[in-house]
Amino acid sequence: MNLVPLEDPADPRLADYRDLRDVQLRKSLETEHGMFLAEGEKVIRRAVSAGFAPRSFLMAPRWVDGLADVLSATDAPCYVLPEELASEVAGFHVHRGALASLNRTPLPPVAEVLAGARSVLVLEDLVDHTNVGAVFRSGAALGFDAVLLAPRCADPLYRRSIKVAMGAVFTLPWTRLPDWADALPSLSALGFTTVALTLADDATPIEDAVAGLDRVALVLGSEGHGLSGRWEQSADRRAIIPMREGIDSLNVAAASAVACYVTARR
Amino acid sequence: MNLVPLEDPADPRLADYRDLRDVQLRKSLETEHGMFLAEGEKVIRRAVSAGFAPRSFLMAPRWVDGLADVLSATDAPCYVLPEELASEVAGFHVHRGALASLNRTPLPPVAEVLAGARSVLVLEDLVDHTNVGAVFRSGAALGFDAVLLAPRCADPLYRRSIKVAMGAVFTLPWTRLPDWADALPSLSALGFTTVALTLADDATPIEDAVAGLDRVALVLGSEGHGLSGRWEQSADRRAIIPMREGIDSLNVAAASAVACYVTARR
Question: Which interval of the chain is the signal sequence (chains A, B) (predicted)?
Answer without folding.
Answer: none
